[in-house]
Amino acid sequence: MLRFAPSPTSNMDIESLRVAIFNYIVAKQLNEDLVIRIEDIDQEKNIDGKDKEILEILSLFSIDYLTAAHQSDSLKYHQKMAMQLLTKKKAFSCFCGDAKLKELEDEAKENGKPFVYDGFCQTLSDEAVLEVNAPFTVRINKPEENIKFTDILKGDFDVRPDEVDAFNILKHDKTPTYDYACAVDDMLMDVSFIIRSEKYIENTAKQIHIRNSLSYTKEIKYAHLTKISNIPNDLNSVKALIEEGFLPSAIANYLVLLGNKTPKEIFSLEEAIEWFKIEDISKNVTNFDIEKLRFINKKHLEQMDEMRLSKLLGFADLDIGKLGKIYLEEVSTLKELKAKIHTIFEEKTTCKGFESEFIKLKTCLQDAPYYDDFNELSKYITNETRLKDESLTKPLRYLLTGEETGPDISNIYALIKNYLGEIIK
Ligand code: GLU
């Protein structure tokens, strides 16, 4: 079982999408299921509706999964297992208040050492615990031995007991801490392989220690993905990228390509399942390259079925799909293509430098019979207006496309000729 565990606390970002994609691919390769676990136990940070939005994004990227669960629904299991740990003396009730913990922290800081819990409450007898009438947290005992694990990308880790420490697993309100909920859920969901961001490598020993304490012996494989840097702030969320006109298929293609050795440059996720190797992903920070993403997006638009492209542009006409493809000579995103098409249909009032020619041409075109072929139309206009060379070509292109330069006008005419009434208005 693989899992993708997003928090509904912000917009889904590019790195998080990359984690989802890799989990999806590897699950398919291993013929295992993928579950989505919405990590919503930090109630204060949750943003209403983000859970649904994350699932919508996953479906937009055709990332299918077995189930989607909310972590907060497992509270009773988190508490039950904490009780087990308390009974087996693998965890203890901790009454240390914030002031005392702050004192310990300050002391450690002064001595230039990391904070380590002094173990005071672990020494309290059961009788003493029963007598205390104060709020408490539940802390897991410090491990007795080093915690060792191997990460497929980052190598071997050997973490000392003091680095893991005796840490809280239940807070004062008896809700689980992040590491505890995560470790228990990975166990309950029978997760065998965890692919996630490198920022969680620090949590891994703690999570292994929790499972060890619960006598869970199944080994979980890890791959912590190195950061992507230089993502422009305004493009960091998946939503923003889509709004900018990048296709999900192109974004997915780019994220699999980034810092990777792939047999080809342009591919679908389904193809990537055939050859993707998680161990080949770069261990170094990779830079986000918007120009590369634009290039890939253009390639995906070029390969797209013309009717589908037309629908994405707001039409259901093969010709508009073809027109979109012609304009890919100039632009790379759906948003830019839409702007081009919009400009064609926008009302044009004059053409700079050719004001009188523009009026003449407009009237002529409005009265012109229908011509299938651009050369025929051109001949007719020349006859009617006596305009030639630049005085004809410049305002004519402008009237037909809303721009002074652009792709071959006869190719464009062939695709917009049925819309002249709307274009020349
Ligand atoms: N909830 C974490 C996140 O949104 C992921 C934690 C994990 O994968 O273990 O990044």
Summary?
The protein has 425 residues and is mainly α. The protein contains 20 helices and twelve strands. A three-stranded parallel sheet has the order 1-2-3. Strands 4-5-8 form a three-stranded antiparallel sheet. It has a two-stranded antiparallel sheet with strand order 6-7.
Unreliable segments of 5+ consecutive residues: none
> End-to-end distance, in Å?
60 Å
Q: Which hetero compounds are present in the coordinates?
A: glutamic acid
Strand tally, please?
12
Principal-axes geometry comes out as elongated
Strands ordered across the widest β-sheet:
1-2-3
Largest sheet: 3 strands, parallel
Overall mean pLDDT score? 96
What's the helical proportion of residues?
40-55%
Number of discrete helical segments: 20
Describe this structure in words.
The chain is elongated. Among the domains are: 304-345; 355-423, no CATH class. Helix 3 packs across helix 7 (178-188) and helix 10 crosses helix 12 (290-303). The mean pLDDT is 96. With 425 residues, it is mostly helical. It has helices at 14-30, 50-60, 75-87, 98-110, 126-131, 161-164, 178-188, 201-213, 238-243, 248-257, 269-275, 290-303, 306-312, 318-327, 334-345, 355-367, 374-385, 389-401, 409-416, 420-423, and strands at 2-4, 34-38, 67-70, 91-94, 137-140, 147-151, 155-159, 168-170, 193-197, 221-225, 228-229, 286-287. A three-stranded parallel β-sheet has the order 1-2-3. Bound molecules: glutamic acid. Glutamic acid binds next to strand 9.
